[in-house]
Amino acid sequence: MTGAAAGYSGTPLARKLGFKSGARVAVLDGPDDYRSLLDPIPEDVRFDARPTAKTDLVHVFVTEREALTGHLTRLRRLLRPDATLWISWPKRSSRVATTVTEDVIRELALPLGWVDVKVCAVTATWSGLKLVVRKELR
Questions:
Q1: Residue 83 DSSP symbol
Q2: Which of 29, 70, 95, 115 is the most exposed place for a label (fewest CB within 10 A)?
Q3: Domains of the chain from N-terminus onward
């Protein structure tokens, strides 16, 4: 499946997620075929094994509320205030067992200074919620 097919709207997934040329990206617990879902990927995108203070975009795939809490807290301390965080959770229709929903993400993220600015379909299994640090905290 190509990024365009995975994105469902005709827009390539890398574009929907905000991948830009030269960006440093970290993916945590993503599907094995994650990179192929992104095609075409902008040139010079660098995939790091784990997020650092230099990371521009992190995409976390999570099924458990407890794991989500840990990721949100750790990444809020680690990432620059202008970095982007995508949290993906299984869609209800996927029948994947999960304790994460869009509302759970907001409940845990908002008190940490994150705010959600976009939601999208990532694949037939995963939805995604884009989080950024609230403007007044940047």
A1: -
A2: 95
A3: 3-137 (3.40.50.150)
